[in-house]
Amino acid sequence: MNPRETIKKDRNNSLFWKISATFLVLLVVLGVMYVLITGYIANDYFQEVNQRLYGQIADSTVQLVRPLVDGEVDTLAVQEIMHSMMVINPSVEVYLLDVEGRIITYVAPYKRVKLDKVALRPIREFIDSGERKPFIKGDDPRHPGQKKVFSAAPIEEEGQLAGYMYIILASEEQHSVVSMLSGSYMLRLGRDWFFVTLVGALAAGLLALWYLTSNLRRIIEKVRRFKEGDLQARIEAREMGDFPLLSNTFNDMADKIVGNIQQLQAVENLRRELIANVSHDLRTPLAILQGYVETLLIKDETISTDNRRRYLNLALDSSEKLAHLIEQLFEYSKLEAKQIEPNKEPFFISELAQDIYQKYQVLGRSKGIHLRLQLAPNLPLVFADLALVERVLQNLMDNALKFTPEGGTVTIELQEAGHHVEVRVADTGPGIPESEQSYIFERYHKGGPTDKKSKGAGLGLAIAKKILELHNSTIQVHSKLNEGTSFEFNLPAYSG
Predict the structure, then answer these.
(1) Which residue has the higher pLDDT, 259 or 50?
(2) Residue 147: which domain range?
(3) Is residue 220 included in any domain, yes or no?
(4) Partner of 171 at 20 to 30 A CA spacing, among 15, 76, 214, 328?
(5) Between residues 492 and 243, which one has the greater pLDDT?
(6) How far apart are CA 90 and CA 447, in angstroms?
(7) CB atoms within 10 A of CB 5
(8) 22-46: string of b/e by CB count within 10 Å (b at 16+)?
(9) Closest Cα to residue 40, out of 223, 225, 195, 186?
(10) Residues 330-351 pLDDT 10s
(11) How far is CA 331 from the centre of its chain?
């Protein structure tokens, strides 16, 4: 495997390693938190058990010895019993309190006891709870700020409260021993089980991640192939796994990108065709115009008046054709760019058809072509752009007169069809081959009388098609060779 392939493979697996590292960190953090929380809960559990077992020790002590005699502390007796209790049970520390919580006496090395007074609220709550002692912590005189489980009992003299017996059930010595053993236990737990569990969970997690991300790696590979130019790369259904949304989104995006590329290629081909066709169409009238102008300049002194006028008329005709071609190009480009919005209004399509018929009568007679107008009675108004519909009819008439031979007929027919008015322009020309009928509305395509395609700007039908699309209508062609051609479209009737 070459270095480049290795880099690509590592790049594809980077997500797996990132997830694995994150999983490892989370696993370690959760493991440590679990051990700490377990230790904390175990400590509280031990203290609660201790308090429930020895909760009555203060009552028993008070009943065994009278700490106060005539309002005075029997120091010798109290300290003797305190010392005996702490020797027998090193986990306790015994204190004698007055009614306000001040420490009267205790048994402890010098300066080991830091507090002079403890809070009475936990003590009273403990005493008031009766035999079922709750889990309550009180002040630790040796460690200010720390709370420990305790046992407490009131000391009464002649029915009056004289003080409290306050016994810490988790002594400083016990705490030291527990801490030492706890540390040793935690160490053994971590060494013998925690890391074994951690490694096992990590291995299982990595295997699970590897399996779960296998489909993702295949998806990444398909994306990489598409990026490198394989436009046919797609994610198959069996490769989607747990990522159907991602896979379908990529497939849709890839299809759209490929479609856009194909559209761009088609636009580029049309652009080249446009340049070629426009160059050809502009060259012909320009060449004719240039030829006659040059002839007039060269033969200026010898040319007769009649020839001069004829040449000027021919040059004028070429310039008019050139202007008409340029006008068509601008009109079609505006329609294609959707820069023209139809100004729809109700009007009588029959009156427009009569105007078109009258305008083309002269041109038809000059070519020996008979024009007919067939109007159904009581035609309704249509709702459309009058100027644009007139442009459609003019283009269809121009096309019909162009290909209809002398002695032929061109017919304009209007009839009502439901909520529409059907417009039909037919001729008796040579017709259009069936193989060419789907192309005649494309720009720069001219279908000749016998399917002889000539390079030239056949924009009339393309413009008509675009205008009708603005009116949510379509144009249809029906043609047979040597019989003629008809173009039909519908316009909505005005319902207001």
Answers:
(1) 259
(2) 1-212
(3) no
(4) 76
(5) 492
(6) 116
(7) 9
(8) ebeeebeeebeeeeeeeeeeeeeee
(9) 186
(10) 777 777 777 788 899 999 999 9
(11) 40
Copy the structure tokens of residue 442: 């494309």
User: Are the CB atoms for 146 and 140 separated by under 8 Å?
Assistant: yes
CATH number at residue 331: 1.10.287.130
- Cβ atoms of 105 and 77 within 8 Å: the answer is no
Q: Does 9 share its domain with 68? A: yes
Residues 183 and 259 placed together within one structural domain of the fold: no
**Are β-strands 160-168 and 345-347 bridged in parallel, bridged antiparallel, or unpaired?**
unpaired
Of the candidates 67, 63, 152, 168, the residue with the CA atom closest to the CA atom of residue 108? 168
Q: How many domains does the chain have?
A: 3
Side-chain-side CA neighbours of residue 428 (13 Å): 12
Residues 397 and 268 in one domain: no
How far lies 85's CA from each of 56, 78, 324, 446, in Å?
14, 11, 123, 120
Q: What is the pLDDT of residues 90-148, one digit of tens each?
A: 778 888 888 898 988 887 766 788 888 999 999 888 888 876 666 888 998 888 888 88
**Angle at alpha carbon of residue 123, lines to 121 and 126, rounded to 5°:** 110
Domain for residue 218, yes or no? no
The secondary structure element, H or E, covering residue 153 is strand 147-157
Phi, psi of 424 (to 5 degrees): -135, 130
Q: Is residue 224 domain-resident? A: no
- Per-residue pLDDT tens over the stretch 33-52: 877 787 777 777 777 777 77
The pLDDT of residue 312 is 87
Domain end, chosen from 313, 336, 359, is at: 336
Residue 10: what pLDDT? 46
10 Å CB burial of residue 311 (0-12, 13-18, 19+) is middle
Q: Are residues 75 and 117 in the same domain?
A: yes
Q: What does pTM read for this prediction?
A: 0.47
State how far the Cα of 437 lies from the Cα of 304, in Å rounded to an integer.
Answer: 48
Same structural domain, 167 and 27: yes
Same domain, 351 and 329: no
